[in-house]
């Protein structure tokens, strides 16, 4: 008679269920447990299927959504129809939606992503034209390795492929849409990464964004990483590539990271047909990070309105129609470093200034102040319009409209139509009683203003009197120090001041 301990030993070695008295190999138990929560979709199969690997669902409409479950469509297949997630996951049981390829259910990232073509009708996106619609967002869901398309969305504002919920991950997906791409409204802890969004080709009546992050209250921990947004130029003047903002002046976007993204027109198009569309648009970020992004062919590369202590570094904002980087509103104490802002500006409109980096304290005294602007490269920025057709535009770095107390050092600024660095106090002491406090030090400046002429728009040839590497106008109040800058090229003046310069000290120029 087999003793109890011997039976348990033998059962353990072969995978026997000692309680039930049945024998089941360990690998079979593992497969059974895994498959119970993994569901497969293959639109090419003949039957409706039951979602197992041996008999996949033919349609996403057959799926029952549940927390902790994984849903995979076979790579190289195309599904056309309604695809809406009707349940949320939980913190301990996320829902995962992705791809598989091999006969054992594993994936092969070298194969084409599974395609999901959503219906253009009915006219309400909540009825199936989007994966998740406004106020029907799903939380704790990961969307991965999908190619999601809808080029027949109803014409309206903010019609997105998907509205993400809290704690969602949307990564390595392709999104094609005639309207908007991915929206995050009043949600926290969301990541959108590695996606390609080919969007915004709707008519000019409605506003849509490639990626939107917005709220009526403060939100936390949004990460937009290494995405490509191909803005096709549709929509209103408020249709941007990546748009992040709060609608309440007391609310902020906290722990916002915008890193490694590329925003531009589609390949082969130099400038966006929507000549008011901004690449990356941010309003009220609290210590936000904008790092290693590339924006070309838009109105402005990066536009920031308000929010203190943000980091703007290592971005390439070149060949845009107006500014490379523009900071305004109530925005203080930024680090703006190692950006490349070249060849911005052009003939597209008379209101385009054409500047590499522009700071404007138009909101009043101290609104834009205390910034560190260092190690940037601003070259070949040019202007054929601007508010003054007098050669004062096309500036490398503009510290304007009463911006105060900035440190500008170690920048390479050359071959700009206007001055390399322009400091303009605004000329209205009631609005800006102190326009000084700057330190401009150790910048390398070459051949600025060498093709700057008066009345360019009407064919003027007279050289502009504003030909200076550094120009200071209406700079008064706190002491400003200009020191150790290097000038080269045929620029007429190293430093220009307008006479309101009692507070300006100039030392050690080369």
How is this fold's topology laid out?
Elements: H1 4-14, E1 16-17, E2 22-23, H2 26-36, E3 38-41, E4 70-74, E5 78-80, E6 95-100, E7 115-117, E8 141-144, E9 147-150, E10 160-164, E11 169-171, E12 174-177, E13 180-185, E14 190-193, E15 196-199, E16 211-215, E17 219-225, E18 228-231, E19 242-246, E20 253-259, E21 262-264, E22 280-283, E23 285-286, E24 289-291, E25 294-295, E26 302-305, E27 311-313, E28 316-317, E29 323-328, E30 331-332, E31 335-337, E32 355-360, E33 368-369, E34 372-374, E35 377-379, E36 397-400, E37 407-409, E38 412-414, E39 421-424, E40 439-441, E41 444-446, E42 468-473, E43 480-483, E44 486-488, E45 493-497, E46 504-507
Parallel strand pairs: 3-4, 4-6, 5-7, 6-8, 7-9, 8-11, 9-12, 10-13, 11-14, 12-15, 13-16, 14-17, 15-18, 16-19, 17-20, 18-21, 19-22, 20-23, 20-24, 21-25, 22-26, 24-27, 25-28, 26-29, 27-31, 29-32, 30-33, 31-34, 32-36, 34-37, 35-38, 36-39, 37-40, 38-41, 39-42, 40-43, 41-44, 42-45, 43-46
Antiparallel strand pairs: 1-2
